[in-house]
Model the fold of this input.
Amino acid sequence: RLGCSKNKITLHDIGDPKQGITHVISPALGYALPGTILACSDSHTCTVGGVGAFGLGVGSTDSEIILAAQAFVQTKPNTMRIYCSGTLALGVTLAIAATELRTRCSH
Done:
């Protein structure tokens, strides 16, 4: 609270009717607008892409770095192409297949 006051950061504190989950309140309050960049410690921050903003879910350490430096260095990830052929087994959805691929590629 003191840090927000000292650094002129808007605080939606507990009990504030505008307080809520970042990825929900950002578009609702007009923080997430087309062309804006948001870095929040909420894994669903990327959903602000639905309003044309770029959302980056970061951890608490990264949040501190962003607030202190007013910058955040990101490297472009490598490109990966995956080819799949055949048909999915009965009951296997595309979401299940994509989750399985992600799991296998992350090890």
About this structure: The helical segments are 2-6, 22-28, 60-69, 94-105. The first strand starts at residue 37 and ends at 40. The mean pLDDT is 88. The chain has four helices and two strands.
